[in-house]
UniProtKB/TrEMBL annotation:
Pfam families: DEAD, Helicase_C. The keyword DNA-binding applies. Belongs to the helicase family. RecQ subfamily. GO terms for cellular component: bacterial nucleoid; cytoplasm; replisome. Residues 30-205 form the Helicase ATP-binding domain. It comes from the Bacteria. One of its GO terms (molecular function) is hydrolase activity. This is DNA 3'-5' helicase. PROSITE patterns: DEAH_ATP_HELICASE, HELICASE_ATP_BIND_1, HELICASE_CTER. Residues 230-380 form the Helicase C-terminal domain. InterPro entries: DEAD/DEAH_box_helicase_dom, DNA/RNA_helicase_DEAH_CS, DNA_helicase_ATP-dep_RecQ, Helicase_ATP-bd, Helicase_C-like, P-loop_NTPase, PRTase-like, PRTase_dom. It is an enzyme of class 5 (isomerase). The keyword Transcription does not apply.
Amino acid sequence: MDKNNAITLLRKSLNNPNAQFRDDQWESIQKLTTAKEKLLVIQRTGWGKSLVYFISTRILRDQGKGPSIIISPLLALMRNQIESAKRLGIKAVSINSANFDDWEEIKKKVLNDKVDTLLISPERLASEEFIEKILYPIADKIGLFVVDEAHCISDWGHDFRPDYRRIVGILKGMPKGMPILGTTATANNRVINDIKEQIGNINVIKGLLTRDSLKLQNIILNDQASRLAWLKENIPKLKGSGIIYVLTKRDVRTVSEWLEKCGVNSAAYYSGVKSDDFEDSNSYREYLEDALYDNKLKVLVSTTALGMGYDKPDLNFVIHFQAPNSIISYYQQVGRAGRAIDNAYGILLSGQEDAEIHKYFREHAFPPQEIVESILQVLDDYDGLSTIKIEEILNLRKGKIEQTIKYLSVEEFSPITKEGSQWKRTAINYKMDIEKIERLTNQRLLEWSIVQDYLVTKQCLMEFLQKELDDPNIQKCGKCSNCQTDTKLPISVAQNNIIEATIYLKQSEFDILPRKQIAANALPTYNIKGNLKINFQAETGKVLSRWGDSGWGKIVSEDKHLGYFRDDLVDAICEMILNRWQPNPFPEWLTCIPSLRNPELVSNFAERLSKKLKIPFFPIIKKVKESHPQKEQENSFHQCNNLDGVFEIDGIVQNKPVFLLDDAVDSRWTFTIATMLLKKAGSGLVYPIALASTSVNE
């Protein structure tokens, strides 16, 4: 196809009769469609990388080639890409976790050459059925193989994903001469060299990375209350809509609910987010993406789940409530803003919790060697185990088991293999590469230190970003807060708004949901298994805070270590119950979870709380045998089993609603078993209360 015909496709795709190719776009298309090269394209967000592979797909299909395969890391990105493909008349389909019922029909269309583009996640490459029944049968017909967000292939990439390691092995099995395209906006020289080494003989096209429309600014506000107050004061002043990036799911909810309270139309977005109005998380996330795109939301508060590939040309601002882990991550996320408008804000807020959160992420990025060895040993001992059975045998968190299995399964010479639902040990004599893990961890620590430098630098902020991305054409932007000090957003916050935000954080209690099922073989002494009868279940309870967080969480943590919960916490729980929760029917007595290690801590608090609520306190739950600390139990089976036969009821149970108090809640098993015993002994409805949640699942 000549350039003029390609320009016609470009204009059709963009719905712009005057559109022209940007620098390097036509060259990239030629290299793929004519020269059939392996190509790595590194261009800033908004440059039009998807145009390259979709126009190339159209050209190759018109040449009689087979479908393009696109590896895409996120559902949001796939949805965006499918919509883009439609504008070129490209029949694009996806096989992903959200459309299981359609897989068989899609498979038939792909095998019968009725599809122009198949989008899959890298996780799909773990499926032998997909490889054997879809990918290999069409391998010699594939017109183009695309790896979107190709930096994920590299161990050195800011967003390395284990499943991307499978891609290199798949590519080695593809026919020679098949064009391959890797695209990314975020690859420095280290990442580029790693990708070149893995894929081999790949050409690189790298463009300018500066973002002319962005006004960058950094603001350090150490406590969350000050940052919430800043958002309240400044979000309404900003034109259009934008994204606020937050590091954890729980902080996403905190920020979103605060903005709603302040009259800002916002919503929370993260992996697994749910709404009662939608049948599943995927459909709700799609709704939120569309609502932001159509400017029906002022702000979408999100984790990095809304990141790669989300394309809203008129996004007016990207604000980080907490600093990201690296400059490259920041560049990619802030680059969502200002793609097709002249001015957009990129504001990096930073606070005291950032370093601790990233330390946790770094320390949990790779499975510890002892866990790897434990899982390999248990697979050696048995002829195949499911992850559920591994949980029962080993006291390890489900997430940690899954992480370790994933880590081992993507190794080039894997020591494990999957048969059906079971994992089995292979004959590979496996040794973990500890030195490599240490190198990567140290590199990520260095990247975090560079973020700290960026926060306080006096040089042009865009220039700083370009330097870290190894951009050969570094230049001052003339728009950031260091280049133009008179256009900065305010860095100070009104004290009355800080006070309001502080009160909000102290009133951010949340639900303790009842457990409804007992794991098999977990409670032989109590002889309970399967579904827990509804009349033995707790009501939805309340927890005052999150352990160590702003608001009450930090105070709970301090007081627990001191051995006495201050009266302020009694007042806070009482206010929560009487003014905001108001359970109905209201409990007429109170009891608590006992402890043999510290028998006075919770019971003393319970006594003071009962007096404040003007209801009697009856300490009738007894701990009849010592158990291992619940915090040492790593998964649901062991958390439940550890409490088997530990408690019994000793005293007269009131046949009236009751508050069941503990200082901390994590797995909810202590509340579940204590409630069951109270109900069996004749109590009324049971309402759990805790001072803090120590759960790490958020």
